[in-house]
Structure formats: structure tokens, C-alpha cells
Amino acid sequence: MESTSTVQEQVKEKYGSAARAVAQSGSVQACCDPGLRCCDPITTNLYSADQTGIIPEKAVLASLGCGNPTALIHLQPGETVLDLGSGGGIDVLLSAKCVGPSGKAYGLDMTDDMLALARENQKQAGATNVEFLKGEIENIPLPDNSVDVIISNCVINLSADKDRVLREAFRVLKPGGRFAVSDVVVRGSVPDAVRKSMLLWVGCIAGALQESEYIAKLTGAGFEDATVEPTRVYSVEDARQFLTEAGVDVDAIAPQVNNKFFGAFVRANKPKAACCQPGCCTPALARAKE
After folding, report:
1. Domain CATH for 159
2. What pLDDT, on the 0 to 100 scale, is given for residue 31?
3. Which of 107, 125, 219, 280 could form a disulfide with 275 if both were Cys (CB 3.0 to 4.6 A apart)?
């Protein structure tokens, strides 16, 4: 298993390259880059014309997610939203419009090129209730109990320390806060060699969790009511070209792959009132407070 620092450097390079492509030429050549396969049918047609029509074009072009979290959760005026791994800022800018002038939308990203692109998109959009922060999703630079909703778009699967990401998400959410992210998830067992090829196709440098494992990790971090809802199921035909180029016998692995990898909407809630009496907190909740 690769170290956290190695994975972070690889993610920075891949997504930094995508950001530079958008900033310099107004297009992202993700599908032409053998090291950055976040492309059709994963990233296409995720946002409605109504959504893409109200934000800068480069924010749309730099979107390399696997879902549309802003379309799947109802944001209230005045709420504070945090987008983990905000990239070019599309989900932050859409969230900012939902929460209105009395609300706030934060974007967190560790890639300088993406942050520069996101801030330029913010400027073009005239969004005054938006702030982009530099940092890692494993170490969120915000206080405890400071946000109402956490969203993310195909980013948590890129972390080498998902338990820490979820503990940090729990920490910064207010009591009763909502966790609502799009991510890549695996259903059922898949041979390691097949899994590696599919995840390279699905998420660049992905480490997607199994459905049951995702729920268990959320529960372990202190969340309740955790659910995983498939939004876009990937078939082996979707990945045929990439897998063939990688030397994989697509027809041989088809039974082991079909309908097992999917984009999903992952939901959970932070309990409304955390118990603070001695001996009351669960071990998971105690760990989340560390």
C-alpha cells in the first residue's frame, strides 16, 4: 500500500495538471492522459444546464467528479457548507447560491493550481460568500462544530487515510450536521488485479471502499444513519478501451466487474447532541473527539 504522502503527491500532480490545462487552454485533456482517466462516462452529464449556466465555464471544465452532491442534498439559506477537495470550485459556487448571502461556502483543496483556478472562478462569479482554503482533507483547517453540511465529489476515495478524513469531517460538523458526498464505491468482492485496473480507470489514483466498509467507517467515526445510494453504475463496457490498452482481457474479467463499481451518494448525520457525561460516549465518538 502506498504511503499517504506518496498518494498526496500523485494527486497533486494529476489534478494540478488538469487545472493548468483548463487555465491555459480552456479545456481539460483528461481522457487523453493515460495517468488521468477521470472521464466519460464518469464525469459527463452530471450537472443540469440550469446549473452550468450560472457559473463560469472553467469551473465546469475543471470538474472531474463522479456525481453532483449539490443536486442530491437540500441546502438551506444561511447554512455553512464545506466542500472537501473542491477543485475548480463548481460545487462550492453552486452551494454558495443555495445558502445565499447569509450563508457561507468553503472549498478545501491542497493543489495550488486548482486553488488559483477556483479563486479566479469565484471572482468571475462575483461570489462574496465563498472562501477557498489550502489544506488536506485529513487535516481540515476549520474549528470544531463550525459547518452545517460537508459535501465532496469523488475525492475521499483518493485519500490513503479515509478514517482520518471521516473523523475530521465529524469534528468540524455542528451537532446535527450533515455529511453528503459523491464518491466511488465497490459492491462485493473483486480480485485485486482487476480492482486495481478498474480503479485506475474510475478515479485516477482511487482507493474506493466497499459499500459495507464505507458505512462501517462512518459509524466508527461517530456518524449515524449512514447510507450509500448508487447514482451511476459502471459496466465493463464503459472501461473496455482503457482496460484493453492496459493489457487486460476484458471479456475474461467481465463477470467479476459488471455493476460492482459505481458512483454513489453517501449520506450520514452527526448526532444532534453528543453525550458528555463520563462513560456515556461510545468508543467511536470518543475517538472522533481526539
Report:
1. 3.40.50.150
2. 39
3. 280
